[in-house]
Design the sequence.
């Protein structure tokens, strides 16, 4: 519409110019030449405006096609767009490619979260099934059978044990899911690691005493480290608790701290049965338990939770083990803020 108005204005100006020449000079030849020149100029203007319209139309058509690729999630075709040249279309293509990369990343993240949620629901269902079945059987036995008081008391204690296991499972799963979802923000502060170790050791003192397992701690009284004391203590407690569970009576657990240049290393060594090297990666998986450990109480979430906590602080956990002699779990936490 704008181009048509420009062309109409130019035509009106030409007609006015011809009329002016004819009225002022009364020269038909000069007027005819002027008419031809103006017609030629109008023709050139028309060609230029038509060319501009085609260029603009092609430009917007290309944008439309590229946006269709984006809406249709044709990411491979989008990656083939020309965005390396110094043109306006190339700059627009750069933005389209960037948007496509963001959408693809969000799509992968969403799919990963969906798979993680499905896995979590499956794990919870599997783990809850056993104690719930046991509770149902115990309830029916107590309700429908005439039992001696001693037997009834024994079954009630068993029910209490199953309820404790169920409560521990649900509490652990809530912590894990909140950590994975980022709902729990770890607060790293420069605190004394000795106090964090003391808090972790205090939680396993009773079960260790029952098995006559002394816990030796080698750490300076003042060992400042940038970490979250509460959650780090929980992670170390989970590792130490496993050490007590899988160690024989009258054995020994050793906890030592080494200050390195970039990391602080916390070694937790036991004299337990040991872990096959092929299982080093598996033991940190959620709910993983070896066949030989099924008789020992536990649900297989402690090491998984410990690794999540340490990784949230930009640290990592390693394990070394010798079958029949014991295992050493090494926790590495960065020294820098």
Sequence:
């Amino acid at each position: 519409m704008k181009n048509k108005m420009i062309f109409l204005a130019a035509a009106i100006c030409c007609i006015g110019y011809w009329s002016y020449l004819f009225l002022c000079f009364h020269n038909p030849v000069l007027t005819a030449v002027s008419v031809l020149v103006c017609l030629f100029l109008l023709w050139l203007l028309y060609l230029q405006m038509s060319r501009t319209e085609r260029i603009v139309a092609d430009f917007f058509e290309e944008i439309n096609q590229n946006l269709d690729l984006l809406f249709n999630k044709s990411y491979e075709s989008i990656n083939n767009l020309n965005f390396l040249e110094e043109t306006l279309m190339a700059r627009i293509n750069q933005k389209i490619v960037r948007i496509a990369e963001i959408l693809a990343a969000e799509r992968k993240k969403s799919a990963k979260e969906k798979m993680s949620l499905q896995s979590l629901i499956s794990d919870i269902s599997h783990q809850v099934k056993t104690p719930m079945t046991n509770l149902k059987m115990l309830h029916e036995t107590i309700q429908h059978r005439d039992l001696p008081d001693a037997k009834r008391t024994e079954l009630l204690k068993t029910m209490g044990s199953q309820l404790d296991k169920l409560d521990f499972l649900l509490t652990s799963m809530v912590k894990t899911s909140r950590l994975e979802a980022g709902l729990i923000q770890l607060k790293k502060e420069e605190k004394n690691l000795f106090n964090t170790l003391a808090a972790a050791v205090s939680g396993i003192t009773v079960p260790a005493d029952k098995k006559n397992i002394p816990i030796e701690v080698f750490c300076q009284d003042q060992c400042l480290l940038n970490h979250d004391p509460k959650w780090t203590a929980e992670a170390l407690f989970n590792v130490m608790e496993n050490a007590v569970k899988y160690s024989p009576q009258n054995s020994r657990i050793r906890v030592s701290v080494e200050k390195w240049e970039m990391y602080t290393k916390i070694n937790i060594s036991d004299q337990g049965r040991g872990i096959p090297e092929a299982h080093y990666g598996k033991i940190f998986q959620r709910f993983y338990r070896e066949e030989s450990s099924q008789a020992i109480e536990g649900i297989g979430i402690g090491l998984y939770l410990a690794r999540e906590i340490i990784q949230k602080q930009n640290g990592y956990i390693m394990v070394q083990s010798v079958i029949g002699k014991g295992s050493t779990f090494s926790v590495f936490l960065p020294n820098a803020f």
